Amino acid sequence: MTTTDRTADLFAYTLRLADDAAILGQRLGEWCGHAPTLEEDIGLANIALDHIGQARALYTYAGEVEGEGRDEDQLCFLRPERQFNNCLLVEQPNGDFAETILRQFFFSAFMLPLWRELKASKDETLAAIAAKAEKEAAYHLRHSAEWTIRLGDGTTESHERAQAAVDHLWPYTGELFEVDGVVERLAAAGIAVDPASLRDEWHATLREVLDEATLRLPPDGWFQTGGRSGRHSESFGHLLSEMQYMQRAWPGLRW
Amino acid sequence: MYTQALNARDASDERSEDAALLAAFQARVDAEEKIEPNDWMPEAYRKTLVRQISQHAHSEIVGMLPEGNWITRAPTLKRKAALLAKVQDEGGHGLYLYSAAETLGVSREELTEQLLSSKAKYSSIFNYPTLTWADIGAIGWLVDGAAIMNQIPLCRCSFGPYSRAMIRVCKEESFHQRQGYELLLEMCRSSEEQKEMVQDALNRWWWPSLMMFGPSDTDSKHSAQSMAWKIKRFTNDELRQKFVDATVPQAHYLGLTLPDPDLKFNEDTGHWEYGEIDWEEFARVVAGNGPCNRERLAARRKAFDEGAWVREAALAYAEKRRNRREAARIAAE
Question: What domains are defined for chain A?
Fold first, then answer.
């Protein structure tokens, strides 16, 4: 394979990780000032901040890999929706608190082992980003798992809401494990992580937490797909219009 | 921030309390000793502090809303991260202050109820809207700047928990203020269009920032007692003057014009003299008729109501866990 192909793969892979982090951070930021408790207002803002921090490092690196002079902000604020390759799970609207928590739980249960494995990547920059992100993901997983248990095993209402959130979000989890040419080639080269290798651990985490939360997983059915190739939910364009508003309205200025 | 509560006083504070205890209390305050939660204190001192600390806490919480309004629209990732961190700090200040108030025997739940039922006030400044990104810089520079003027003397407040909370809060506020100023500096240097946006923000936030210090000394009848108790160290007008003196040169450095035709430097006193504040506007906003009073309270009430099931779930789960542990302990015996 040529260096150009490898560069294109690495750019695509890094950009996906960056988009996942940026979009989830954006969604979590919407909660600010509106959470059920003051502690949770602070907690969700903190998790949002971690994701924005990860996105910054990843976009910056993606820009370097691409070599066309695009910085973190150009990649985040000046691409249209069809060029965003985040998974559908992270872009799902916040819904109620249970949906926000379950979205985080499903995602962080996947990202924790992913970052841990990516620390061994032959790409030094990705490995360094992963080392920092792993610690953050461990906290995100603990926080969202604890709330999943509280909500699932709390009151009748919270149990119903948590179960509804599990059922609603489940079809978006299949995409986390999708493998395409980019992942396949980079995993073979020791740069990316093959998500199939994380599936058992992810399932074990889910089983343990959901059992304690008295929640059940829906039977495997149809899984939604499309995020990795830029086919998003209808709500996603609205998220981008809000997020990109300043850069679109006043292009080329320093802020 | 937000010491407007010091300008109100309870009618019941003249109750007969042991004269010897009162004298001993005042002697401790005069000797700059800290009063701690378990120490004897006059009822009116306690009430004044509860009102002031809770108003301060409420201001931090309500203050998250106008800034939170721009988190999803911040122009760069760096600014988004900084704003998230700042708003998170404000929430932390709120937590800290509610805890300080709790040492005086009033729960966070009671205080929250007072806020949501409009019995308690918060700083009038947060009833103004954040219309452009420059407003985020203006809040950091002016609102946090005014807050620091108010709060630095509070680090020496006679009540221990409040004074200690203020030391930490002031460090963070001072960081926010520099961050806000730097944001505006970047905008003013970047383009004429952005500088106009900053000027517009200054025009809208300047006078409300001056109002943050409360009524003028001639109309503030109640600060004498707070001064004697060493809760308050400077009068409203003294603090306001310090703020104007510090801020006017900063505005000039940005190349901006203060929206006050009467503003002039007095060579003899070394102070900036400013025009008359629109006290009618201040009274109107404090009374609930500012541009955003209704929205702010509605947002807090909505968060409270919609979060009720979450808080109930957390309590129910904690109760279940306690019962299970207890059952396991009994079974083991």
Answer: 3-217+231-249 (1.20.1260.10)
